[in-house]
Amino acid sequence: MKQMTSLRILLTASILASTTAAFANVTLPALITDNMVLQQKANAALWGWADPGEAITVSASWAKTPVKAVADAQGNWLVRVPTTKAGGPYTLTIQGKNTLKISNVLLGEVWLCSGQSNMAFPVTKRPNSGSYTGIINAEEVIPKANYPTIRMFTVQTKTGDTPQSDVQGNWVACSPQTVGDFSAVAYFFAKEVQEKTHFPIGLIHSSWGGTPAESWTRKEVLEQDPDLQPILARYERGLTTIEQDRETYKAQLAAYQQEKAANPNTPRMPPREPVGPTSNKSPYKLYNAMIHPLVPYTLKGVIWYQGESNVDRAYQYRKLFPAMIASWRADWKQPDLPFYFVQIAPHRTGNPELREAQLLTMQTVPRTGMAVITDWGDSLDIHPRNKEVVGHRLALWALAKEYGSKNLVYSGPIYHDMKVENGKVRLNFEYVDGGLVAQGGPLRQFAIAGPDSVFVPAQAKIEGKSVVVWSDQVKQPVAVRFAWREVPKPNFFNAAGLPATPFRTDKWRTSTQGKL
């Protein structure tokens, strides 16, 4: 018995000693490691964990004076390291009871790249993915992708019931050997920004296919807004019937697969899997695991490509999307954090109301911008493969607004106001740089309505900086809509070749309004 007791004491002492030793060492989040990019000309956040009360010293090879901190009662520490202009490579040394050295650090521009599958879509085809078929010009792009100062940190996909402290991933320099796994939109965005500015670019890529915006939104934001509370209520109700719903889903999926085998071009979409407690579609759980751990890494801005998974409740997106943006800005304590996003592409599952919600976000939320890609959609493929045009149009916003590129046209025409003139409607636009253009023939996809709210196809022509719209069927026009459909194929551009966003002049009730 004495031998057993002595053995237990020795084992306990050994475990305590190893635990204490592990905790005593200064540790860092996955983001802070070799090959990282820190935001230039900023007070860049660096943080980690140590013993409570442990003194931490951070020395940067570009700075003469180290920065010091003391770990709090929970062992957390944070410093703000002043960074100089873009350059490198540099080293960072973090010293507490142990010493950590981080090599090949660059100072440059750091962008968070997030959203769903169109942001996750890689440069090269991903085997057995079905959806990720690679960009249309991969064979041309990959051999030329020798940009060692463009670096991407890809966050491993994960859900979390509560806010997490760290992620999994590592910084990878861009080369022909690595670029295939990069987010294609993020890569093309970074490539163009770097070619114009010559700054190193750090891309933190955190996205997951098939996910709604509420998955990326902090729980408290959803709880505190009456218009967003139904998201949580719907999720909680679904948990009570999840087993039954899964059985129903299996039957529906089998029927769909049988139909698709008989008719590969069936227009019917596959059934949606029920949202369980570990689903990536659960509200707030991707925020917990894939966004919260990135705070407070200092950013230049955010690029975002998402919205397809919110088309069923597009009207709600008017409130949800701006709320998510505001909460991210609050988390990072960067109230003016630039946030540039992509309007969803034409697709048979699309919804013009979602595009309108995105347009309204751009028009009402400061320091936001929207890349319109109605000219590059695919009615049968929700993942348009020309990601270069997407990255380019996002880069136009960043270059014009963040990097001082003067006389750069960064947006297509955006509806401003209307006036009824002798049975016709004159529409005025912003962003008409160089004039308005109808590509390939007369303007198309305009519709007009009278007081009965019935829209009919309309004729339209450009007159200077305006568009005049009319129809012989509507003698008293009161409203106009443009490209207001699931799969718009408009030909309305400005002289810079940027497409006009779909819009409507009316405020009549829409199909998803009131849908919770």
TrEMBL record:
Residues 260-279 are annotated as: Disordered. GO terms for molecular function: sialate O-acetylesterase activity. Residues 1-24 form the signal peptide. Residues 285-370 form the Sialate O-acetylesterase domain. Residues 232-259 form a coiled coil. It holds the Pfam family SASA. Keywords: Coiled coil, Hydrolase, Signal. Transmembrane segments: none annotated. The keyword Glycosyltransferase does not apply. One of its GO terms (biological process) is carbohydrate metabolic process. This is Sialate O-acetylesterase.
